[in-house]
Amino acid sequence: xxxxxxxxxxxFDSGVGGLTVLKALxxxxxxxxxxxxxxxxxxxYGTKSAEVVTRYSLKNAxxxxxxGIKLLVVACNTASAAALPALRAHLDVPVVGVIEPGAEAAxxxxxxxxxxxxxxxxxxxxxxxxxxxxEALRPGVPVEVxxxxxxxxxxEEGWLSGxxxxxVASEYLARFSGGSVGALVxxxxxxxxxxxxxxxxxxxRVVLVxxxxxxxxxxxxxxxxxGLLATPGDVPPTHRYYVTDxxxxxxxxxxxxxxxxxxxxxxxxxxxx
Amino acid sequence: xxxxxxxxxxxFDSGVGGLTVLKALxxxxxxxxxxxxxxxxxxxYGTKSAEVVTRYSLKNAxxxxxxGIKLLVVACNTASAAALPALRAHLDVPVVGVIEPGAEAAxxxxxxxxxxxxxxxxxxxxxxxxxxxxEALRPGVPVEVxxxxxxxxxxEEGWLSGxxxxxVASEYLARFSGGSVGALVxxxxxxxxxxxxxxxxxxxRVVLVxxxxxxxxxxxxxxxxxGLLATPGDVPPTHRYYVTDxxxxxxxxxxxxxxxxxxxxxxxxxxxx
Lengths: 273, 273
Description:
The structure is a homodimer.
Chain A: E1 8-13, H1 19-28, E2 34-38, H2 50-66, E3 69-74, H3 77-90, E4 95-96, H4 99-109, E5 116-120, H5 122-127, H6 129-137, E6 143-147, H7 151-157, H8 163-173, E7 183-187, H9 195-202, E8 207-210, H10 211-225, E9 239-243, H11 248-258, E10 266-267
Parallel strand pairs in A: 1-2, 1-3, 2-9, 3-4, 5-6, 5-7, 7-8, 9-10
Helix pairs in contact in A: 1-10, 2-3, 4-6, 4-10, 8-9
């Protein structure tokens, strides 16, 4: 048996989006093993209710627990917004979401009095989770939010540049292009793929905040604090991938998100976990 | 107890799209009761595998059976393409899909030798179900297919006209605008909502085939053949709606699809049916 320290970091998302967070984790914590679950049979989460997203998140977590994890990263903004309290009450390992790290990164990068913009799925925006996290860090901070429901299908389909993404981005983001916000939080793990078109729409002066790096940093800090960092050189780290639908598309699209090939993704049925 | 004749027609879809079929059924068979299930907790089906879509379809059918139905209409092209044989083997009531009626309507409207175009979700197109149905009706008929994955999110978000839908339609459908096909089958129950923009893109000479009316006709014929038509005036028809996620959005968006208000939609958990 491995000790807890040698167990993997568990990561889940509704699909491929959370691979942007996994990538940041692998870069910051190269000695750690990881196990990733993409719930591709029920993607997307962002247009579904908090109740349904919480139910799915608990099942995802239960599955990852069966694979031996020492910490869970919820690499999905919608699930972080809806299910973090339920996951923390349900699990006996620490749980890290993407919203608090993203809010902290935004606050660190804008001066007091400057507004922060947040874009995300309808579920994330409706939850008010970013608004609460920002307010807790800097009471009274002006926050402007905008749901962008078509960004997930565009990213999933690989329509990352050209006329259609530019036009969709302009419909959603024109209000942020006049310098009304100092930073814009990409409050969905799919959105970093559309960073170029988002940048072109909002202009060069708005700081774009991607929570992947901030979440990796929060994970590293929590592992260190709990004495759970893997012992270097003890066991070579492994990276496992599970999906709830057939893996073909995940393997293909996911490599774009992860920036390296995905090897050995395995399909699992977690309906009855 | 009602006799079989007075039982309802069961209809399911992944979400709101199948309401276009329900609308045609209500118009053609005003004396029939209906019970509709929208699997909004797992929408969309079109980007998922045949295996997962079949699993969901069987659960949907099992739920509708518990509500007392005399016939099942699969008002979703992806589910019709993936799951019809499994549903027919599993159920003891007749099952009608949307693909064969749609293919028949297309063949009836183009002369021999003229090509038929089919647009649908990636799942429907990949299945080859339309290609097989058209070939069975008219061996050798030229068929041109095109998956249009972004049409479902556009229709679900209500982006039905304007620059973005026009540009997306042009990316997918430009090949059909030169008169290469005599008819174009709208092989997804969401697509009738985008009919105007599809019409503008392919031009006035291509016949657009919507399978809703053809499916209602096939249902009426099958009920008559089996002696299952409701006795007029016996019991006033009822229309019930069930969804697997919270009903708010279904009720709101669905009214656009159904062309009348949706009253009393109820959320059900069919995970364990």
